[in-house]
Amino acid sequence: MSFSPGTGRAGSRKKLHSRVSHRTDTQTDRDRHILDLEAKGRMAWQKAHGYGRRSLVETTMGRYKSIIGDRLHARHDNAQPVELAIGIKVLNRMMNLAKPVSVRVG
After folding, report:
1. Spans in the chain with pLDDT lower than 70
2. In terms of Cα–Cα distance, which of 92, 69, 66 is closest to 80?
3. φ, ψ for residue 21 (rounded to 5)?
4. How far apart, in whole angstroms, are the C-alpha atoms of residue 4 and residue 48?
5. DSSP-assigned letter for residue 9
6. Is-contact 60 52, C-beta < 8 A?
7. How far is CA 72 from CA 32, 58, 68, 95, in A?
8. Domain ranges in the chain?
9. Residue 8: which H helix or E strand, with range?
């Protein structure tokens, strides 16, 4: 079974555009995204709206939280940005060390 948005329960999947108003003066951002998604297709919509960038940011934040920790340990407001900057430098250094150096041959 698949989840039907808006019903709150599992059931048959309905076409999203049947619930979207086609009047442009009352459309929400969600409505416009749904119409755009149906017109362009999922992959083109993701590329046009930077969807992959969101995924990269979520991955980066997950990496930061798993390696550095999910909260700041500094108690004072002026020390927290320093702690964050150090954590970011550590992660960037780790990422650069793990990247292979590729050289084009030929």
Report:
1. 1-25
2. 69
3. -75, 135
4. 25
5. S
6. no
7. 38, 18, 9, 21
8. 11-48, 53-98
9. none
**62: its two tokens:** 């997950």
Its pTM stands at 0.49
| CA–CA separation, 56 and 8 (whole Å) | 29
The angle formed by the CA atoms of residues 60, 65 and 67, to the nearest 5 degrees, is 95
In the Cβ-directed half-sphere of 26, how many Cα atoms lie within 13 Å? 4
- Locate 11 and state its tokens: 């059931």
User: Is the alpha carbon torsion for 4, 6, 9, 14 positive or negative?
Assistant: negative
Note the pLDDT tens digit of each residue in 6-28.
444 444 444 555 554 455 568 88
